Amino acid sequence: MSKRLYAWLKLLLPFVAIAISVLAYYFIADSGKQKKTDHPYYLFLLGAIGAVFLIAVIAGLFKDSIRKDTIERAPLITGAIVFLLLLNIITTKTTLLPTLYFPSLDRIVGVLIENRVFLIQNVFDSLKLLAVGFLWGAGVGFFTGLALGYFKIVGYWINPVTKIIGPIPTTAWIPLALSTFPTTHSANIFLIAFAVWFPVTLMTSSGIQSINNVNFEVSRTLGASTIYQILHVAIPAAMPSIFLGVFYGTVSSFATLMAVEMNGNSSGIGWYINWQKSVMMYDGVYAGLIIIALICSLSLTLLFKVRDKVLIWQKGVIKW
Known about the structure:
The chain contains twelve helices and no strands. By secondary structure, the protein is mainly α.
């Protein structure tokens, strides 16, 4: 079999999987246990996947990089479609799983479509809270790590404190934060900032301390001031570690966001998931989980894109 024919067969796999899924949707009888939806939302999802993949195939005819990437991802996309097919059979066509906790794909996708305005508002509220907390945590963490790593006297006094309070799980601070801060919103910002502060502080100080002293001695011999050494020697050399700290902080911030929004918030994706769970609407729970997973994945992807631009010499060293 020629490579060209093999490539085209791989490109056909997702469309074959979609066709089989549609046939299974209509020709395998439903169990009758799942609540009916107004529209076949699961088929809408399959159509969207097929349309996006078809656009990628067409674009690949004009650009080799897109074509190679599309061919490489075709089996993975096929696997995802087959997984959705099996999930639809298990939840809708059979009674293998309790329908209360495992709603049909029609219901989950239907929530995302029918409640999109409400969900977008909650996403916006979550992102506002996350952004403020993250910026505070990353900013304070950066300067704390810079002071700990560069100034030995600061490290001598502050490093033991950082080692004691830093590893404490953020959720353990929730009762204290709620009783200390004047509003729940300010307490939540503190908790998210704390979750980001420790990894950024740790990796920033570690990156600076790992710099060879020769670099500082040479710059000092050439007349460099302390500010110059910090800006042009310490920070650039520690950038790989700083980005690693920001990566860990980002992951921690999303975990903390979900925890704090489930404790006293009146909006946000975490609040929405908790609310849907309390009223036993698990289609909304899964919809919220899908949204937060997509936002977290997109945020980390963007972070690594920025990292590859800033640290061009380390592009591809750490992949996401």
